[in-house]
Design brief:
With 563 residues, the protein is an alpha+beta fold. It has 20 helices and 17 strands. It has 2 domains: 3-137 and 420-555, GROEL, domain 1 (Orthogonal Bundle); 196-387, GroEL (3-Layer(bba) Sandwich). Strands 4, 5, 6, 7, 8, 9, 10, 11 and 12 form a 9-stranded mixed beta sheet that branches. The chain has a two-stranded antiparallel sheet with strand order 1-17. The chain has a two-stranded antiparallel sheet with strand order 2-3. Helix 4 runs antiparallel to helix 15 (446-458). The radius of gyration is 26 Å and the shape is globular. The structure holds adenosine-5'-triphosphate (ATP). Adenosine-5'-triphosphate (ATP) binds at residues 29-32, 34, 53-55, 88-92, 151-152, 410, 426-428, 462, 466, 492-494, 506, 508.
Length: 563
């Protein structure tokens, strides 16, 4: 396929246009008064998605100009990165990125050196991140978490209470998983469940495109310690699972490209419902982790040392669970069907092994270091013990449930983030206030100084944007806030009053704000130091034909209860 190359200023300004367009659509959702955005579903006959979540809007946008789309895509990646790391703050990161990009573009047109601008921005962001951490309000107060939750979810306290109950029930190592509910009210169920850090081998396994997840209900689980090199080796198990109308989770050392392609094709066509991931752990430790999983899920691992082959495996050898949720980065197994006594015995054995290592004298034991072995055992014990809270989001109808689901998940992530790094005043006020820390940065180089100024200017934007979305004049709100400038005085758009945002309970987790700023600056630095873009010549037909889309929609659970 023919490629085009676009150079320096032309490339940057077109990317900048893309960033602007995407940001314009997303920033209307910022803040408590941020209105919703309606997104047409790409499959005919499926209702539109209504959302107030920045990353959802960002992901729905593809621009017709390929270079503009590269800019928009980079901004989408910022939102995605913030969403993955902090689970919230995506709109804030987009608003910040847009302002940073504008500042850089203007300075570069005026002749500034992009490398120095970038350096200045990096130093400013580092200084601000340290300041945020230093001034964070650290607390374990349930009331504060409730306020964070309310501010992030735009929901009432009942959601906050249920979410905090969920976090307390599963503890630090546990997981809270979110599902579409079937009732008017939200529900919480605490069950066994563990997550490990391996995501799907291909995003084509996705069943929920909006949340980028592959979800399997009542799956069988194959545990295999070698590479699957031939798709046909899996077919008997896939067919047997299909006969039971149940999906299959394949946890295997790897699936080669030759085997993966037909597996995906069959999945997309709806012939089999399957997801493939790699096992947890590394190297030799992987067989042990597969054995742990076998005990948890009530199955038998197919291991080379035991002389097992895929041919010999039957459905009775496979593990089972109530549900599996796989993202690009992790696999969560909920409601494992293993025997409770066998799991307890395994935990007892691992605890004994860990105690033996702890009892070793210095110099005794494994040459690779006792600490590593001990950490490994502790991780496995936590994995076997892990609890999961299943939070079912309720609502009046499917559209409301889906819209609420994203907000409730954001709120959960915000509370977790607040527990990690503390909180600061929200409504754009906390970000605005920390700009003073930048006074400490002094440089002789004008472009370095300009880089710092660009970051400082961006700190005003979230407040302006929240005020604008609430129908206020941003400049007059800003002027009023700056008259106090104490880090807590701001405008509550819900109550339509000025006052202490701490008292009003409008709080942002420091981790969310910090990651939003760091990621925004990171992506803008990349755009601004881009000298050339290589991309495909535009072609008229950029989407698969409609028959393929319909096939995809039918083969996935993208919209499980769509008519
Ligand atoms: N009543 C309020 N008055 C002023 N600001 C508010 C109010 N409620 C929430 N906010 C602020 O709105 C911002 C969060 O808005 P929003 O949730 O739309 O964006 P986000 O968290 O950046 O992105 P997303 O939720 O789309 O991932 C936070 O800074 C929060 O403090």
């Amino acid at each position: 396929m023919a490629k085009q190359i676009v150079f320096n200023h032309n490339a940057r300004s077109r990317m900048m246009r893309g960033i602007n367009k995407l940001a314009q659509a997303v920033e209307v959702t910022l803040g408590a008064s941020g209105p919703s955005v309606v997104i047409q579903h790409r499959t005919d006959g499926v209702g539109p998605v209504v959302t107030r979540d920045g990353v959802t809007v960002a992901q729905a946008i593809t621009l017709p100009d390929i270079i503009e789309d590269v800019g928009a895509r980079m901004l989408r990646d910022v939102a995605g990165a913030v969403s993955r790391a902090a689970g919230d703050g995506t709109t804030t990161s987009i608003v910040l990125a847009r302002s940073l990009a504008r500042g850089c573009e203007k300075s570069m047109v005026a002749g500034a050196n992009p490398v120095d601008l970038k350096k200045g921005m990096e130093l400013a962001v580092e200084c601000l991140s340290n300041e945020m951490r230093r001034t964070a309000i650290r607390t374990q107060d349930r009331d504060i978490f409730r306020k964070v939750c309310r501010s992030a979810s735009k929901e009432d306290d009942s959601v906050a209470d249920l979410l905090i109950d969920a976090i307390e029930a599963v503890g630090n190592d546990g997981v809270v998983s979110f599902e579409l509910g079937y009732t008017h009210d939200d529900e919480l169920e605490i069950t066994d469940g563990s997550r490990f850090a391996q995501g799907y081998l291909s995003s084509y396994f996705n069943t929920d495109k909006e949340r980028n997840l592959a979800e399997l209900d009542q799956p069988y689980i194959l545990l295999y310690d070698r590479e699957v090199t031939d798709f046909m080796d899996l077919v008997p198990l896939l067919e047997n699972a299909q006969d039971q109308r149940r999906p299959l989770l394949v946890i295997a050392e790897n699936i080669t490209e030759e085997a993966l392609a037909p597996l995906l094709l069959n999945h997309v066509r709806g012939n089999f419902k399957v997801v493939a991931v790699k096992p947890p752990g590394f190297g030799d430790g992987r067989s042990e982790r597969l054995l742990d999983l076998a005990i948890m899920t009530g199955g038998r691992a197919c291991l080379e040392v035991q002389g097992d082959t895929l041919e010999k495996m039957t459905l009775a050898d496979l593990g089972q669970a109530q549900r599996v949720v796989v993202s690009a980065e992790s696999t969560l197994i909920i409601g494992c069907r293993g025997d409770a006594q066998r799991i307890e015995d395994r935990i007892a054995q691992l605890t004994l092994d860990a105690d033996r290592i702890r009892a070793r004298k210095p110099g005794e034991g494994s040459p690779t270091g006792n600490r590593h072995d001990l950490e490994n055992l502790e991780e496995r014990i936590a994995f076997l013990r892990s609890k999961t809270a299943v939070y079912r989001v309720g609502g009046l109808n499917d559209m409301t449930i889906k819209e609420r689901m994203v907000r409730v998940e954001n709120a959960y992530n915000s509370v977790r983030a607040a527990m990690d790094e503390g909180v600061m005043a929200g409504g754009g006020v906390g970000l605005l206030h920390i700009r003073r820390a930048l006074d400490r940065l002094r440089f002789d180089n004008a472009d370095l100084r300009r880089g710092v100024e660009i970051v400082e200017e961006a700190l005003y934007e979230p407040l302006r944007c929240i005020a604008h979305n609430a129908g206020m004049n941003p400049e007059s709100v800003l002027a009023k806030v700056l008259m106090h400038d104490d880090g807590v005085y701001g405008y509550d758009v819900a109550a339509r009053t000025y006052g202490s945002l701490l008292e009003a309970g409008i709080l942002d987790p420091v981790k969310v704000a910090r990651l939003a700023l760091q990621n925004a600056a990171g992506i803008v630095s990349t755009v601004m130091t881009t000298e050339a873009i290589v991309c495909q010549e535009p072609v008229l037909k950029r989407f698969p034909n409609t028959a393929q889309i319909a096939e995809w929609a039918a083969a996935t659970r993208e919209d499980p209860r769509a008519p």
